[in-house]
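Minutes, project check-in
Item: structure for the 497-residue chain
Input as provided by the requester:
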Amino acid sequence: MRIAPLLAALLLPAAAAAQASPYVALDDPRLPAFEHLIALGDVADPSPMVRPFRRADAVRVLDTAYADPDTRDTALVSELRTAWRPDSGEATWSLLARAGAQAYTEGRRDPLHRSGAGNVEPYLEVGMVGRWDNLLAVSRPAIERRLLDDPDWPGRKNLDVTGRQVDGYLSAQFRWVRLFYGQMDRNWGPVGLPGLGVSNYGYSRPEFGFELGNDRFRLRSQAASLSDETDSLGQVVHRYFFAHRLDARLHPRLQIGLWETVVLAGVDRSFDGRYRNPVTLLLLANQYGLGDQGNVLLGLDLQWRAGRRLTLQGQFALDDFQYQNRSGPTRVPDRYGFTLAATGPLAGRIGWRASYTQASSLAFRASDPFENLTDAGVGLGRNFADNDQLSVSTSALLARHWLVAPELTLLRQGGATLNDPFPQGTARGSTPTLFIGTVERTWRAAVGLSGQQGRLALRGNMGVHLIDNADHVAGRSRTRFVGQLTATLALGAAGQF
């Protein structure tokens, strides 16, 4: 991480192509409407398969769409341009406070893997942004009592009032280079699903990252320390996470992304420099190179604009492929995951999205449990393996401001979890590649609602789940209503330093 001061010293005197811009948070109530415009084909994706993107990048593609006579919803395009266009001036500040309530039937944010108590709780956040030409500071703390009911929340649960830092980062942005230190939610992969390698399923952690390049060729990198754990001897195990990806636009319609993530763990282990080199293959620093320990996940993302308004996407991740010993009592089942997705428009201004995803029974786990792709027991990418999921949804705008998204989903979930012990010895040979034990099937019919009008912002979803083999007990059936809703009123101010 010592590279940051050096790069900043070299780049600060350089003339910048544009001012620094905040990132569009993944919980922004307007973001689903922007994704709806992408699905319609009205707006180009400013950052294919990578979220978040900057407000300035969103405004750039919105400006292009606004000038295009074929754009279907110019009113929505105009509204988002106004909302995200940066203030003029070299040094500016803004303050936005939101207060409201969260209502939920389960505390966990993932509606398909229900857990935690239901409740209605108050919510308060304060977002602060300071910008000095190419330098940016963003902080958004929140008081959120829902965390007390969320089994994935790694913080304290013995407090009457609890909160978290939703966003908090410093960024230096120049024409070819962007530097980042802090925390915010990220997701790599098709919209609507947690990415296989990096996702916003869990809660963000401080990291150092940078981006190098432009829209045709971009290298990204991020490094973070994970929560320490304790082994059976009482020794403290240090854990680290590194991720990097190379995105290239090979054709105006074809985008490819190559990425790797790794978890390093060990007593008295440091964050080895070769695992933080963004322009090397981690596999060569590990299994096929020096042979050091570390769990490397290798991934490939593809996006193809098959037509003016049809987009096809794929994400593929490989943790371990047994090219030797494919059979026998000590074989290790392949560990993999993949997602296939497509988006496009229906009649009028209705968009559609379809996806199928699968993760093998031992995906995201390792024989050394401290090298699991988790932090505090929660997945860094997916939090659940041993499953597949088919989803189809549509989206339409009501009264210009509110996006309604009906959804149908089938989830088949095996009995394995990310924190189960990795099978050893002859138990490996009897472990199925997919679906351990009794498979639970969840049929979900739901509708999502999001948007903002004036000071009021809403984001939520509600649905009915028909569950077969509930809790992985053969023959047990259950019907449940699952719902989540966050409603807030905003008050803000802005100015120049």
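Outcome recorded: The chain is about 10% helix and 45% strand.
No further action items on this chain.
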